[in-house]
Amino acid sequence: MINNTSNKDLHLKNQTTIIIMTLFYLFLIFHQLTGSMAADSPSSPYKPQDNIAVDCGSSGINNQPNDDRLWEGDINSKIFPSQNQNTASVTYTASVPPTEVSPTPYQTARLSRSQFTYSFPVTPGQKFIRLHFYPAIYGDFNTTNAFFSVKTANYTLLSNFSAFLTTRALDRQSIMKEYCVNVEQGEVLNITFSPVLSSNSDSFAFINGIEVVSMPTNLYYYPADQNRGAIFVGQSSLYRIGNETAMEMEYRINVGGALISPSGDTGMYRRWDLEDDYLTIPGYSVLPVEYKNSLNFTMIPPYTAPASVYETGRSTGNIKDKAKLQSYNLTWEFPVDSEFNYFVRLHFCEIVKEMNRSRNRVFYIYIANQTAENGADIIMWSGSQYTPIYRDYVVGMFGKGNGKKVNLSIALHVNPEEWRTAYLDALLNGIEMFKMNDSDGNLAGPNPNPRIVSPTAGPPSKQGSKGKNNQTAIIGIVCGVLAGVLALSVVGFLISRRQRNVKQPSSVDGTTWWGPTSHSTTKSGDTRASLLPSDLCRYFSLAEIKAATNNFDDVFIIGRGGFGNVYKGYIDNGTTAVAIKRLNPESSQGAHEFKTEIEMLSQLRHLHLVSLIGYCHDDREMVLVYEHMARGTLREHLYNSDNPPLSWKKRLEICIEAARGLHYLHTGAKHTIIHRDVKTTNILLDEKWEAKVSDFGLSKEGPANMANAHVSTVVKGSLGYLDPEYYRRQQLTEKSDVYSFGVVLCEVLCARPPIVRSVEKRQISLAEWARNCYLNGTFHEIVDKHLRGKIAAECLNKFGEVAVSCLVDNGSERPSMNDVVWGLEFALQLQESAEENSSEMKGGDEVAFLSYSEDDGKFSCSWDDSEQKSAGTKPSSSDQSSDTNQSIKGMSGTVFSEINNPKAR
Ligand SMILES: *[C@@H]1O[C@H](CO)[C@@H](O)[C@H](O)[C@H]1NC(C)=O
Ligand SMILES: *[C@@H]1O[C@H](CO)[C@@H](O)[C@H](O)[C@H]1NC(C)=O
Ligand SMILES: *[C@@H]1O[C@H](CO)[C@@H](O)[C@H](O)[C@H]1NC(C)=O
């Protein structure tokens, strides 16, 4: 190895010392202008296990001001073993240091006219590889001549690549290329640089900096054993992005927000760019929106993206004028290479206060001019406001570009069908876009401007994409430019950078340094923890569990079930309350099955499912640790307890939330998961009265496991909730849960158990009684006396319709849980509008509320509405619905338009 750095450029260096200092000062200003000096977040949500940053062509450990990232020089380093093939490479310092980016790692480079390889002994797993290039003049190497390829064992990352042409086209000094690859067990990550040796023998390869940084497992990939994947746009299928696929990051955008520097990322040193260069504004103004409170990372891990990505977004801004709406698409355009598939991740978070429930903001998403979503509904995906979520798409860009860049567009369009959405609005918070390798393992595209065929030519003078700002580029190639000229060009650069609106990729910007390490958040040292995704599910030692429950002391028991007892305990030095379920050794299955099921459970994350925190499997103990639900079961708040009765609206909200949780169980996971034991004691309430479904999962999965479910002849479920069809035909489907949920709805309305033996025969089974009353038009008779006069007639009617539809005999005729959610939300809307209306009207004479008089312990009812007063005549259900239309005629038009047209769905 030769190191020419110190002697050759010595006088040049002296000459430029002052310039460097000036430039550094300007660099600081520049960074302040672009906001990339964002403060380091003190505790990153993720610490990468491998966190390698190589400053090629230098020695020792280097860092840069304002960044604690340490770059290790490759001279005499084990990462760059001096084997034969590598001896031809040399190292130099750039004759002109970079001004746009920090000196480390850009000012030094390794260069060679023959092939050389870096070997990284990394842990197995998914990694980022980042390559940094600063095409300047290094000794007698002029990087305008450098054309080379970069390969790993299986993939071609770059081919016939010219860093010079690429940076020129982008109007930048430097370029960073980021890749995602998986390293198998026992594999050494080799990165090989090979100059293209064609007619021009001057060609060489060079590199300024290399990073290899671990990423959380399956942050961007999908595990092989699951049927999950990105939505394959235009193909109506899923695309599973597996470990065999390498990807090149093309764009990573903080929509509506500021630039986020690598040190502001969640620990992976990703850079999030501004959207300005990509947003097309066709006439209408768009509203950036912003939110500044804490977000709930309940659906996705907090390392997915920095909170500031979700705290800002861009919306179309509730377009009220439908004429304008027809011509309005909020569109971003990204130049990409054609003939590749692209992976697009869209980040969402509902951060606008008014948009507080699903169906408030339903919109369309188009990717590459194809429909990707025709009912995008952020809250439906995320479960609640301020809860970040993302959606993944894969789109092919084939037969379009003819070797040139093509635009991949992402467009949001508001939903013109008013009955589907309360607001004509759309929102997006972040975009990530990756190129996926082709079938040959290739990721390389052509250089941006193929017209330059003679790399020996001097600095081309007309290569700037817009013919402006050429001074900037010259910085990179002219050696020994006078200080004045340099300073001028930097100032020129700063000005033009501020005004720049060139649509070009920014994945290539050079200021990217990435960072720190470690995989497992498991607190226990037990090796068995590694069998499961430790990010999702924590392993507890038996000692920890015993400490938390005082050795399973009975005084901590908060529930008993067929599977065993549930204890309340405290973990993490008594700071966190948890529910600890100790499975009965006799009643539970084998260890393998236990683990498989935990794996499945730990993947299930939903705001309305009680989350599994961890498990313990030790000494034949099988223990599950769940989040603790402070307010206990729903049943305790309905009857047979001293708790004050819940208001009708609260009950509706609880039903909606529980229905959402069940909907997620049925549709959100690998297989349909059938709860099999839906009841009011399995719906739990947290301290904020948020409802969550519990006790799922140690039941059977859906269709995939059907055969097994049949073998076990035990019909699981609780008396009074059992689907009669399941009982008759032993055929378990998710519609059995729908039936049980129908019973729950009746229970919530009537505040009585599903089976009461001490009453007259027709009332023993709540489901049967409620259904008969609904069909006979006497549904209001069975309502909880505490709700007397509090339920709007139209709401009760809708609620009854939903409940009874769940209880129909034939499972296939029952609604899906999604339909149930919609129906209940609609009922809630009806109730809210009626309440608003009646408080406005004071007398409430246009709104029919039910009121009751108690009569021999049975409830009877009369209507406030004078028309219905005549004793004995109860409105039939069809009477009720015509009454509904009448009663809402005075309502404001701001609620869902479905109200004006009850048959709309
Ligand atoms: C990686 O490089 C090391 C050292 O240069 C070499 O021994 C090994 O064979 C290479 N592995 C592959 C897969 O190319
Ligand atoms: C919005 O963009 C999509 C996809 O490009 C297109 O199909 C749709 O017609 C556009 N809508 C309007 C109103 O321009
Ligand atoms: C990506 O490259 C690998 C290795 O060559 C190959 O096995 C895989 O099929 C490629 N992926 C796609 C989507 O073609």
UniProtKB/TrEMBL annotation:
Primary location: membrane
Compositional bias of kind Low complexity: 876-887
Keywords: ATP-binding, Glycoprotein, Kinase, Membrane, Nucleotide-binding, Serine/threonine-protein kinase, Signal, Transferase, Transmembrane, Transmembrane helix
Native source species: Ziziphus jujuba (Chinese jujube)
Domain of life (superkingdom): Eukaryota
Pfam families, per the entry: Malectin_like, PK_Tyr_Ser-Thr
Keyword Glycosyltransferase in annotation: no
Polar residues: compositionally biased ranges: 505-524, 894-905
Membrane topology annotation: Single-pass type I membrane protein
Gene Ontology molecular functions: ATP binding; protein serine/threonine kinase activity; transmembrane receptor protein tyrosine kinase activity
Transmembrane regions listed in the UniProt entry: 473-495
UniProt-recorded name of the protein: Receptor-like protein kinase FERONIA
Positions that bind ATP: 581
Domain Protein kinase: 552-827
Cellular component aspect of the GO annotation: membrane
Listed PROSITE patterns: PROTEIN_KINASE_ATP, PROTEIN_KINASE_DOM, PROTEIN_KINASE_ST
Cellular localisation: Membrane
